[in-house]
Amino acid sequence: MGYDEKNCLRKGDILLRTRANTRSRWWGSGGLDLWISVKRMAILVLLGGFVGCTPPPQFRENALEWHKQARTAGLKPGESLPDHHRHDVNDVVSDWFGTPDQPSVPLVEGTEDPLMQLFSPEGLIRAAGPVVSRDEKSSSGLYRRHCSHCHGVTGDGRGPTATFLSPYPRDFRLGKFKFKSSPTGTPPTKADLKLLLQNGVPGTSMPSFRLLKDEELDALVDYVIYLSVRGMLERFLIAATRDLDEDERLVNLPKEMRYRDLPAKARMEIGVPVRSIVEPSRSVESDQSVTRSEAAESPDSKIESDEAGAESTEPLEQTTSTYDPETVEEDVTFMAEEYLLPISEKWLGILEFEAKEVDVPAWVTDRTHVERASQLEIGHQLYFGTANCVQCHGETGVGDGQTNNFDDWTNDWLKVEGINPADPEAWAEYVNAGAHPPKPILPRNLRLGVYRGGDRPIDLFRRIQYGIEGTPMPASLTLTDEQVWALVVYVQEMPFEPISRPATAKKSENQRPVR
Amino acid sequence: MMHRFWAILFSLVPILGIGLYVLAAVGKGSFGGFSLSGLWLPENGNPYAVTIDHLFDLVHIICGVVLGITTSVLAYVVWRYADHPGRNNEAAQYVKHNTLLEWIWTAIPAAILIFLGFYQLQVWADNKMNRPTEMVDGHKQAIEPMALVVGKQFGWEVYYPGTDGRLGTSDDQRIENELTVPVGKPVVLRVEAQDVLHSFSIPGLRVKQDVVPGMTQLVWFQVDKPGTYEILCMELCGWGHYKMRARMKAVSTTSEATTGTEQVASPPSLSQEGGEN
Ligand SMILES: [Cu+2]
Predict the structure, then answer these.
(1) By residue range, what is the domain housing residue B123?
(2) I need a surface site. Which of A62, A416, B229, B237 has the fewest CB within 10 A?
(3) DSSP string, A62-113
(4) Which residues contact A182 (CB under 8 A, 6 or more apart)?
(5) Cα gap A510→A302, rounded to integer Å
């Protein structure tokens, strides 16, 4: 199990040497020689494939947030916040949330911590880790199989394919989600996220995952929430380091000493207990009681971009005695209460959340209803009047109104220094730190009939009533339910007005009338 | 032994190749738990496509016979004339032209091709041109599509007519990657593409239709057995082509009184709050 660097290097070496030795034979005339070398190559390739010579992926640190906070703190380009801050944040976050292969959950309130209700251990096991499918019934590594190439292993919306997509994949670390049944400012419910996985997001690169099993979808929802909570905490901690005095640290340890260098036992006693989520067969101990993740002990657990790994492998006996357990405990508890609890409380609130009951008027679902025409007219008036949809979606509804806005995920860094989005040189440093080149968020073209958050009447109703989180689409607080429904009807009809319909496509031969 | 190598290799093509193929077709063979029948097309559930399967088998048998003959001759020649001890070092002869051979290997394939061309005409017409009909008010009328399936990067959108029973109006109901059809009666679907070329295919029903953006195609079939069938895209359409899988559910309509399509046109997940619980 796992990645053995030495072994892999040796094997690669053999592969290279074999290739060099047999090279002359490739050009030789003997069929048998060719056969032998083909066989040897095949065996080597198979061997390499089975052992899997790639290091386990790691969560990527939020370099963009570090850069942003450095600039906010008044540092010049090229300067960064002190390394010990980065170490503290990385150590604490990876101590609490584990690694992509071995996630864990911090139990601030002991074993009964409500955070465990947010993500079930079974769900995290199925969604995390490398892609494995033993048989049709059980498969794990769902997130890496289906999601990570766009959303990234870290859930930062920066997977390998992300740059090529428009709109960019969601970055979970802001904890904001667009399409949900809950009001602005609250996280989506689990059912919202699951529905989104089933339907995909029409008009974007997010496909439908309806063919996944129910429990697989549940597992992915849990994992997305896990990544979101983890990412939010990391951002909060990074922001917190900015305001610290020069000789202050998040965890007040002696200089040159890192939080992760504390013995596991010490971290267990004075820090926050962590429940490690390890698949039973992969786990060293069979019981999944509250334990420190084994991974946390191995060098693997260090954050990918952390270059300071070498020093940590040195013996630490002489330094361990010099820290003050009480201060460390105070600091860790403070972090948990100040930064982690608000996040988990926010998410836990949605477990009890029940979407507002709304009755769908008959004239919304029934096109032939007598009232529909008058409601359509009311919706039309609202569009241009009180609701002011026209400002962004334009007079014709093709989304050509205000088109120079950006979404919250971009504004998060774009607004910091008032960067001019039209000037690539102005945002180059942020793109280098991991941001996507800013793209304006365009109001929806309402004549296409493509609705990202779903096209059921209730979906449109919620988009209008609650707005769309993270975008300029506002909640319509002043409209009554009935008015919102009238708008829904108007929006429903727009794609079917004659002006929206292109010339009818040429009919193919199999549509000719039957003799 | 080396001089016989190529002869053995070539003779393996008809022996192993055709053997595997036949075993897969009869669904009997398996290697270490790996069933060969899994390599074959799924069982056909579409009465319209019985003739397609017949054509499919016919073409394969013709090709199999030709493959067997040509590779056997090739293997024999390589074996017979290989350089081996006991063979005199005769010089090779260069045969430049043989009119009779040219005639044979031009005429036979041409005859087969022309035969197949005529032989399949009716199958093509039944599956691509003569839409199934139904009697409406005493008139024979082509069956209207019960749903619209739109291929897009990367998935299939299915639209059902809403309460007005017509497609292309504001009460259409959309569901992603799931199509529900009634069993035991002809089903006509309208198929379109949103962005690039796709190919709508249901292997279990032998349905396959390329879809081009801007064009409308109709496909029809009948499902005799209730169950779940796989819908695939069969035209490489981008990086996510492999994700273009959808599910088709064939359900029996419980009450004969309703027209079936209306019964299944609103799968439970489409009802107002259905998908959210
Ligand atoms: Cu496709």
Answers:
(1) 2-83+101-128
(2) A416
(3) -HHHHHHHHHHTTPPTT--S-HHHHHHHHHHHHHHHB-SSSBEEE-TT-TT-
(4) A188, A189, A192, A350, A353, A355, A466
(5) 62
This prediction's pTM: 0.80
In this structure, what DSSP letter does residue A59 have?
A: P
Within a domain: A334 = no
State how many domains chain B has.
2
Please name the amino acid found at residue B53: D
Nearest-by-Cβ selection for B218 from A492, A506, A510 = A510
CA-CA-CA-CA dihedral for A322, A325, A328, A334, to nearest 10 = -170
A388/A302 same-domain check: no
Instruction: Find the B42 Cα to ligand 1 centroid distance in Å.
Output: 21
Question: Is the domain of A302 the same as that of A386?
Answer: no
Q: How far apart are the first and last CA of chain A?
A: 68
DSSP B136-203: ETTEEEEPPPSEEEEEETTEEEEEE--TT--SSSTT-EEEESEEEEESSSEEEEEEEESSS-EEEEEG
The domain total for chain A is 3
Q: If DSSP codes are grouped into helix, strand and coil, which group holds residue A421?
A: coil
Give the residue numbers spanning the domain of A82. Answer: 63-320
A231 has pLDDT over 80: yes
Residues B238 and B163 in one domain: yes
Grade residue B8 by pLDDT with cuts at 50, 70 and 90.
confident
Q: Do A505 and B131 touch (CB under 8 A)?
A: no
First-residue to last-residue Cα distance in chain B: 71
Contact A271, A252 (CB under 8 A): no
Higher per-residue confidence, A39 vs A359? A359
Contact A365 B171 (CB under 8 A): yes
* Contact state of A32 with B2 under an 8 Å Cβ cutoff: yes
Q: B164 to chain A: which residues are within 8 Å by CB?
A: 367-368
Q: Assess whether A457 and A481 both reside in one domain.
A: yes
Q: What are phi and psi of B208, to 5 degrees?
A: -150, 125
Cβ burial, residue A64 (10 Å; 0-12/13-18/19+): buried
Strand partners, B200: B209, B233
- Assess if residue A300 is contained within a domain: yes
In a domain, B73, yes or no: yes
ipTM: 0.76
Residue B229 maps to which CATH number? Answer: 2.60.40.420
- CB of B177 less than 8 A from some CB of A: yes
Instruction: Residue B224: name the closest of B252, B197, B265, B246 by CA.
Output: B252
Contacts of A410 (CB under 8 A, 6+ apart): A421, A435, A436, A438, A439, A441
Q: Which residues of A touch B276 (CB under 8 A)?
A: 181, 191-192, 195, 355
3-state DSSP: chain A helix, strand, coil percent, rounded to 5? Answer: 50, 5, 50
A32 contacts chain B (CB < 8 A): yes
**CA pair distance A498, A148, nearest whole angstrom:** 42
With CB atoms and an 8 Å threshold, state whether B176 touches A198. yes
pLDDT of residue B189: 93
Shared domain for B50 and B158, answered yes or no, is no
* Judgement on whether residues A220 and A275 belong to the same structural domain of the protein: yes
Partners of A133 in the beta sheet? A139
Give the number of residues written for chain A. 515
